Every structure is written in C-alpha cells, then in structure tokens.
C-alpha cells in the first residue's frame, strides 16, 4: 500500500519535472534575446510558446533568430561588410608600401654594389 502511494508520488514528481523542464528549455531563445536586448524579443517569446504546440519544430529557428542580433552591431551584416571592405583597402595599402620598400632595398643594394664593383675594376686595371 505504501509503495503504491510512493510510486504515484514519484510518477507525479517526474511528470512535473519533465513538464517544467520543457517549459524552461523552450524559453532559452527568449532569454538569449532578452540578454542581447533584441528588438524582437517579445515575438521570440510568443513564438517559443507556439513552438510548444508544434513539438518544438520551430525552436531551432528561434534560437538562430535570437542569436543573430547583437546590440553593438545590430544584425551585423552591413557593418561587417563595410569593415571587411575597409580592411581590404588597408591590406592593399600595406601591400603597396611593402612593394615600395622592396624596390628601395633593391636600389640600395645596387647602389652599394656599384661602388665596390668600380673599385674592383680599378684594382684590376692597376695590376
């Protein structure tokens, strides 16, 4: 008799833990959106509740939707594109500077070797 009530209590406890666990899991995208101050956090929250009725079929999309936004850069695609464009121009400028420095080094090497060559020729002529 006691074991029957214990088993029933355990069954109810496990059912409640699973029920609340599912609710906590479905709320993860909303918590991410709230932490990132997402402009659509309410929509993500409501869609999370809808996902309960779709057996969490849309839940991965909510996770993606919540994680795409960042407060400091927004959706980030245009700003990231502009940053990459600026970086590309900086790299091009650095490549031009390196090429100019390589040419200067070559000129200095030639200028340094020219006097020594003429000095060697003069030594050969004197002998």
UniProtKB/TrEMBL annotation:
Which top-level group of life is the source organism from?
Bacteria
Extract the signal peptide range: none
Answer whether the UniProt record assigns the keyword Chloroplast to this protein: no
Q: Name one Pfam family in it.
A: DUF3302
Query: What are the Polar residues biased-composition ranges?
Result: 109-120
Q: Where is this region: Disordered?
A: 108-127
Work out whether the entry's keyword set contains Transcription regulation. Answer: no
Record key words, sorted: Membrane, Transmembrane, Transmembrane helix
| Transmembrane portions of the chain | 5-26, 46-69
This chain belongs to the protein called DUF3302 domain-containing protein
Q: What is the native source organism of this protein? A: Vibrio agarivorans
The lineage is:
Bacteria, Pseudomonadati, Pseudomonadota, Gammaproteobacteria, Vibrionales
């Amino acid at each position: 008799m006691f074991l029957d009530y214990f088993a029933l209590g355990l069954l109810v406890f496990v059912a409640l833990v699973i029920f609340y666990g599912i609710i906590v899991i479905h709320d993860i995208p909303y918590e991410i959106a709230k932490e990132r101050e997402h402009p659509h956090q309410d929509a993500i929250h409501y869609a999370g509740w809808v996902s309960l009725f779709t057996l969490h079929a849309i839940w991965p999309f909510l996770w993606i939707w919540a994680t795409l936004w960042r407060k400091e850069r927004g959706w980030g695609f245009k700003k990231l594109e502009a940053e990459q464009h600026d970086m590309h121009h900086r790299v091009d400028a650095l490549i031009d500077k390196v090429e100019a420095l390589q040419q200067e080094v070559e000129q200095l090497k030639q200028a340094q070797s020219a006097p020594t060559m003429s000095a060697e020729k003069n030594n050969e002529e004197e002998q």
